[in-house]
Amino acid sequence: MEIELVPPSEPLDWARGGWLCPPVRAEEGPGGELIVEPAAESDFWRRTSYGFVHDNGPALLAPLPVGSAMEVSFRLDLTGQFDQAGALVRVDERTWTKAGVEMSDGELQLGAVVTREFSDWSVAPVPEWSSRQVTVRVSRAGDALTVRARVDDEPWRLVRLAPLDPAAEATAGPFCCAPVRAGLTVVFTGWRQGPADTALHPEH
Questions:
Q1: What is the mean pLDDT of residues 85-98?
Q2: What phi, psi does 135 have (nearest 5°)?
Q3: 71 lies in which domain range?
């Protein structure tokens, strides 16, 4: 049984957000989409396994209060190692979650990185999503952040359930990174906000 989610009722204008680490280029396209080019060697990661801290990816962020959900949509066209795009939820440089699609070892991967001083990473292959529209949904309710994603109008997939302090002030929005190359361009096609998910699982 597919879970039913309340569609976000408020489209967000790109001007509603503020840039964390401005990109090389960000411009509005003829259809209202946002075209973003991140700098080479841009990424979000903190310590685990690799030993480094990267906190320089471009992200367009707006408030994500408790009781709200946000959706970010983009056209999936990633070709370089670790090219990535999706939604970032940020409290500070030590507490954040990024979720979306990343090119890893030659294959498109749907996944999330949850960081609380140290980053973790989980992925699942989605080669069939190539060249289609992906939507990432982050929903904040109580002490939890629920991350879902889908391609086109297919059913939502649960990507991650992560803790998020209900007292924390968080922002969220579209992000993209190009850790190993220059020239990546990501076309974001939508940014919406609405009420948080009412359930984690479908009712039986």
A1: 98
A2: -125, 130
A3: 36-194
